[in-house]
Structure formats: structure tokens, C-alpha cells
Predict the 3D structure of the following.
Amino acid sequence: MEALPMIKSCRLALVLAAVVMSSSPAVASADLARSKACIACHHAERRVIGPAYTAIAARYADDSAAVGALADKVIAGGSGSWGQMPMPPQSNLSREEAETLVRWILSHR
């Protein structure tokens, strides 16, 4: 009889693992943002050195080309869009990582 509770626990663990692994890319992107040090200059809801993710999402809400354009800007760096403080190039990001981060940032609406 002790095997039945153990089997149920294993099934539950497998189901939970499947849910976590198939969850939205936003979870993975939060980890990616931390691992790439985006949070040193950005916060979800308030301006730090750079704009808040919510402000970026609001500005580009209706821009269908935003993911590509912002991914380019993240990798190359830029200035003037959010004030005088330039964003340094993030050349440590692949194009795929930059697009993943941008999609996640734009989900902050």
C-alpha cells in the first residue's frame, strides 16, 4: 500500500515539471534578463537608469515591427529614445536571446 502514495507523488512531480517546462517564455525571459544583467539598469515598473519595462511595452504596444527593431537596438546599443543616458551595446546577446527578451519586455502591459 505504500507504493500507491509514492506513485501519486511521482505523477504529481511529473505534471508539475511539465507545466513549468511548458510555461510561457516570460518565466525563462526573467531568468535571462537576470543572467544578462538587464536588471542592473531596468526594472519592471519604475525607471532605474533605463526605462521601466512597462513604459517600453506601452510605447511600442501598437508597433508590429518593435521586436526586430528593439532587438537590433539592444544588441547595438543606442541613445536618445529615453533621454540622454545611452544604452551600451549588449553584444553578449545572440539575436534569439535579444528577441526573447524584447518579447518578454513587451508583455509587461
Remarks:
- The first helix runs from residue 3 to 22.
- Residues 17 and 29 are 18 Å apart (CA to CA).
- The chain has a mean pLDDT of 84.
